[in-house]
Specification:
With 889 residues, the protein is mostly helical. Helix 26 packs antiparallel against helix 28. The two termini are 35 Å apart.
Length: 889
């Protein structure tokens, strides 16, 4: 019956959407109606309103939907959605201010003389508008009104012209900043949490271990990472569009002829190109650059974009005069003043202590006031010119409300889908497919592609993604990242704007295209671009580095980058160290051998012991680094024969778990049914129990007899690799740690010598002790000296002796003689240390510095406080590849 009500839910939703009922009401309405019908049916036929639900009852699932609605607004961690109205405002403002029109006209003049140049200019402008507006309808309409007549007038093929305009207008869905990427990031953040729990359960069931290593966790994503991840795929799509148009024009010149520019390419022309191009490109740089550089969050970048669009509209809409660009210049001046203050002063007002700090803060305040003056001036202009600001605000409110109401409705629909076991049904279906993750992924992508024929991108993102994303992310075999999955879905969803019968880009273009352009020509024109989008999907799917590299790079080069010892980085860090040692041409080994020749016999144990331990661990580290390659190769050699058996056994074991759960439920129900009225049901259950036990026996027989032996053999190989890696890491740390500690002791010699005056001065203070007050002041003096000594590396023995003297002066003992004895001991230790420090400074400082410097970027890489740029770039590239974890499950 659960399946029956699930079908009713889908049928009601499909009927409502197909009849043109508003999506915002169709989604929650179908959920509530189905839940009510199920509850009434349960009460009528079973006497229990909860009978036909997967678990719980109607009130619980309606409450779950309400909680989902509240979660969109009240979860602190889900503030990403705040960026949606900001980017919508930016897009509508730029469209209303005719920036798009200026771009199209200027680019058409620039590229027109090239064969296919008009088409290329449309793609170029579409990419620019995508990075500044992201509003498909506005972009398609603007380009349709401006460029389509020009293309038709210059004898462009109607199908090529309309296809180019429609496809270029959809670039805003994948080129950041994009509303769909923000929504996908929000949905995938929740999906990643669910996927993490699923993977932990899978690890426990497969291995029997209760704790899954953190390196196997599912990685989540954010809107900023989605923007970075989609940037290169978006450029790939733009390049494919341009190459197609160039190829088409080359093969069929009559379909895309060149359009010579009648004017002159003089200074005035290039000045117009500069004024038209530079402001949008600057806005793109400020919005995306601030995110990439880690200066601003997505929400803050959205505010930057909204303010920038307002300023651009402020000078574009007014008549040209001497005051036209003054507000924009004020904003630029304010930015420069604020940047100067940030660069040269400590701008934390709470930490401001000196007059210089306050000077920097006042400079920053001045910059902010100048910038606000320019923004407010621009806003007043836009408000007073045909009420443009009022119109933009109204459109922003309407569009934002539409997006959020659909999000809320989808939360209700998802709750109802889970109420009738839909999520479990989808999971079981996908998990039962042969071929593993990639079969599941292809089917999900195919379903999303087909849904794009009928549904809007928001509906697909908020309805389908929460159901399928946890299943795909949890798979350890593919071990995909959430940002890669989000970009792949985003690329797929983009086709929904072009695919008939409900391709919205086609609707927008049909509304502004002249009657001479037939609808069938528009449909024919978008087909190549749909195929190009699918080609881009294949390219990005085959090369995940195109998505993962930029987010990884941004993360690892940021101030909040993880330390080199982060567990997730260790696999790639081992590879980096191995490559560095190989590339050094034996320099690392030579540095170790040279350090071994240092004479440690006459040195203090404080220096000799850690250096000796470092040199001892060095050979072990190099040996185990080589052993990693040997053990990894052994695992690799056994993978091909082991993996098919592992897949077969895990599949059988999964079926066994399902059958055992079914058996347990049937036996539990059978034990509850006692009366004669349940005789028929008991008989059915008895048969079911027998059949299930037979299935279990059959499945157990499908597990190969050699499985245990094969599993044990392969486990030994992976354990050997793990042991080699762990042994190497401990030894590498030891190789660098002791030597660096000894070097820190030597580097503190000047500070150690500076302690002499303070220590000698203590004698007169201790000897003069008579009264209680004298004891207290002497104790404080010794305590202060102890603090000074503690701050110097390698002076622990002196510190301990001073600690004993301080204790002797305390109120419990008040023993001056004992304090003097410990003080004398401290002086002797200080003098002895001065002697061996002087010797070590002369004989050891140089060779030890060379050794530590040689190992800093290789064997000592894990102990550095932060990643170097070379390490960060290597790790960004290495971790951008999806690493198969299935052999660990």
């Amino acid at each position: 019956m659960e399946l029956f009500f699930l079908l009713i839910l889908i049928l009601i939703m499909a009927t409502a959407l197909g009849s043109g009922y508003p999506v915002a009401f169709a989604l929650p309405g179908s959920a509530i109606i189905t839940i009510v019908i199920a509850a009434l049916s349960g009460y009528a036929f079973e006497g229990d309103v909860s009978s036909y639900f997967h678990s719980g009852g109607p009130s619980e699932w309606i409450s779950a939907g309400v909680l989902n609605l509240r979660g969109v607004y009240w979860e602190v961690e889900r503030d990403t959605l705040i960026a949606i109205p900001l980017f919508i405002f930016m897009g509508i403002m730029l469209q209303r201010s005719k920036i798009a029109e200026d771009l199209l006209v200027t680019m058409a003049r620039l590229f027109g003389p090239v064969r296919g140049g008009l088409g290329i200019s449309v793609v170029f402008v579409g990419a620019l508008l995508a990075a500044t507006t992201g509003i498909v309808g506005a972009t398609v309409v603007a380009m349709g009104l401006i460029s389509l007549p020009a293309m038709l007038r210059n004898k462009y093929s109607p199908s090529l012209a309309t296809g180019t305009i429609a496809a270029s207008g959809t670039l805003g869905q994948i080129i950041p900043p994009s509303i769909v990427l923000i929504i996908l990031a929000d949905q995938l953040a929740s999906a990643a949490d669910q996927a993490g729990s699923l993977r932990k359960s899978l690890f426990k069931e497969s291995t029997g271990n209760l704790q899954m290593p953190s390196v196997f966790d599912v990685t989540s994503t954010s809107a900023g990472e989605m923007f970075l991840g989609a940037f290169i795929p978006g450029l790939v799509l733009v390049a494919l569009y341009m190459l197609y148009i160039l190829g088409y024009a080359f093969l069929k010149p009559s379909a895309a002829p060149s359009v010579p520019y009648e004017g002159k390419f003089d200074r005035a022309f290039w000045g117009q190109v500069f004024i038209t191009l530079v402001p949008p490109l600057t806005l793109i740089f400020l919005v995306l650059g601030s995110i990439i550089a880690g200066i601003a969050t997505v929400n803050q970048a959205g505010a930057i974009g909204a303010a920038g669009a307002l300023v651009m509209a402020g000078y574009r809409l007014v008549d040209q005069n001497k005051w036209t660009f003054v507000p924009a210049f004020l904003v630029i001046l304010g930015l420069l003043i604020t940047g100067y203050a940030l660069q040269n002063y400590e701008m934390n007002i709470k930490a401001a202590e000196s007059a210089e700090d306050m000077q920097g803060i006042w400079i920053g305040v001045l910059g902010a006031l100048v910038m606000l003056t320019g923004i407010i001036w621009s806003a007043m202009r836009v408000l007073n010119i045909n009420g443009t600001l009022h119109g933009v605000m109204m459109e922003t409110a309407k569009t934002t409300a539409l997006v959020f109401v659909i999000l809320l409705g989808a939360a209700m629909l998802t709750a109802a889908f889970r109420a009738f076991g839909g999520e479990d049904l989808v999971r079981e279906f996908l998990n039962s497919l042969p071929g593993g993750f990639w079969t599941q992924f292809v089917i999900v992508m195919a379903v999303i592609f087909v849904l794009g024929f009928f549904l809007d991108f928001i509906e697909i993102a908020v309805v389908v993604v929460p159901i399928v994303a946890p299943i795909l992310l949890a798979d350890p075999g593919a071990n995909i990242t959430a940002v890669w999955l989000g970009v792949m879905i985003g690329l797929n969803i983009q086709t929904s704007f072009l695919t008939p019968p409900f391709g919205f880009a086609l609707f927008y273009l049909r509304g502004v295209a002249p009657a001479v352009v037939r609808t069938i020509e528009m449909y024919r024109g978008v087909i190549p671009f749909i195929l190009l989008q699918l080609l881009a999907l294949g390219i990005v799917g085959n090369y995940p580095q195109l998505v993962n590299y930029l987010p990884n790079r941004s993360n690892l080069l940021s101030e909040s980058a993880p330390p080199p010892r982060n567990p997730r980085l260790q696999f790639c860090m081992d590879q980096f160290v191995g490559d560095q040692i190989a590339a050094s041409g034996g320099a690392t080994v030579a540095a170790i051998e040279k350090a071994k020749r240092i004479d440690l016999s006459n040195l203090s144990d404080i220096l000799a012991d850690p250096i000796a331990n470092s040199l001892k661990e060095a050979d072990k580290a190099l040996e185990n680094l080589a052993q990693i390659s040997v053990t990894a190769a052994a695992v690799k050699a056994s993978e091909d024969s082991y993996r098919p058996m592992l897949s077969q056994v895990r599949s059988v074991q999964k079926q066994l778990r399902q059958e055992n759960e079914h058996l347990k439920a049937s036996e539990k129900e059978l034990a509850r049914l006692k009366g004669e009225e349940f005789a028929q049901r008991r008989a059915a259950l008895t048969t079911d129990v027998a059949d299930t036990k037979a299935k279990i026996a059959t499945l157990e027989g499908e597990i190969p007899a050699s499985w245990e032996t094969e599993y044990e053999t392969f486990s030994l190989l992976t354990a050997a690799e793990t042991k080699a890696r762990n042994t190497y890491r401990r030894a590498a740390d030891g190789t660098f740690e002791g030597a660096s500690e000894a070097l820190m002791v030597l580097e503190a010699t000047s500070a150690y010598i500076a302690l002499e005056a303070e220590l000698i001065g203590l004698r007169s203070i201790i000897e003069a002790v008579e009264l209680d007050a004298d004891y207290k002041s002497a104790e404080e003096a010794v305590k202060q000296a102890e603090r000074s000594v503690r701050a110097v590396e390698g002076a622990d023995d002196v510190k301990k002796a001073l600690g004993k003297a301080k204790k002797a002066l305390g109120k419990r003992k008040k023993d001056r003689e004992k304090a003097l004895a410990h003080y004398e001991e401290a002086l002797e230790l200080y003098a002895a240390q001065l002697e061996w420090r002087a010797q070590a400074e002369a004989e050891l400082r140089g060779p030890l510095s060379e050794y530590v410097e040689a190992l800093k970027g290789t064997l000592g890489a894990r102990l550095q406080p932060a990643l170097t740029r070379d390490q960060a770039l290597f790790l960004a590239s290495c971790t951008a590849v999806h690493r198969d974890l299935s052999l660990n499950f």
